Amino acid sequence: MTSLPKIGKPATNALQIIGITSLEQVSSLDKKTLSNMHGVGPKAIAILEKALAEEGLAFKQLTIENHSATDFAVLCSLDCDNAPKKRLIRDFLIAAVAGNQTTLTDLLTHHFRFILPGDRMVDSLGTFIDLTHREKIAVSVLEIHSIITHGKEGAAHGTITTKKGRKLYFSVIVLFSGNQKEALITQVTAFAIKDK
């Protein structure tokens, strides 16, 4: 493994928070993802790009379409091209964290229900969209570790890293309106744990 070049403390810390400590790991990221990470600026990206080229490596090409509309980095190894419901869950997570009303309206049924066990239940699309705006946090990185689907159900888990370096570990259970691949999301039950 090739060590990271000197890119400055803020950029180095931002990468270390998500477990990136080598150039080979950097090559799994795209420039947009890096530029959205709090602490990683154009100078650090230029230094990394030069170091990658010297090692015969390059940044990954951007593959997530709606990722460009976020102001935070999205790390997700799932391309989802042959799995429409995985793509729906991925896009829901990104839109919910970003508070993207248009995408949420496209992905969720009108009678959408959001359940946070022990805390609250939201039983309409409009109320959920209001909630995403009211409780929006300054996110640096959204990592989606895995997504699984089967029939009318799906699940995902991952980590949200705030711009202050705090972590929120989440898991969601998703119900779709039907078995069809174009079925919308009708319910999400979410579990979250904040780091200390």
How would you sum up this structure, described in words?
- A 7-stranded mixed β-sheet has the order 1-4-5-6-7-2-3.
- Helices cover 33% and strands 30% of the residues.
- The protein is α/β, with parallel strands linked by helices.
- The chain has helices spanning 9-17, 23-26, 31-36, 42-54, 84-98, 101-107, 125-134; strands at residues 73-76, 108-116, 120-122, 139-150, 153-162, 167-176, 185-194.
- It contains 7 helices and 7 strands.
- A hairpin with a 2-residue loop joins strand 4 (139-150) and strand 5 (153-162).
- The longest helix has 15 residues, at 84-98.
Widest sheet: strand ordering: 1-4-5-6-7-2-3
- Secondary structure tally: strands: 7
Under CATH, the topology of the largest domain can be stated as Nuclear Transport Factor 2, Chain: A
- Label the structural class: alpha/beta
Helix content: 25-40%
Helix-strand topology string: HHHHEHHEEHEEEE
Biggest sheet overview: 7 strands, mixed
Total domain units:
2
Task: Name the beta content range.
Answer: 25-35%
CATH class membership of the largest domain:
Alpha Beta
CA(first)-CA(last) distance: 31 Å
CATH architecture of the largest domain, by name, is Roll
Coarse morphology: elongated
Contiguous helical run count: 7
Average of per-residue pLDDT values: 88
Oligomer: single chain
Q: Uncertain regions: pLDDT < 50 for 5+ in a row?
A: none
Radius of gyration, in Å, reads 18 Å
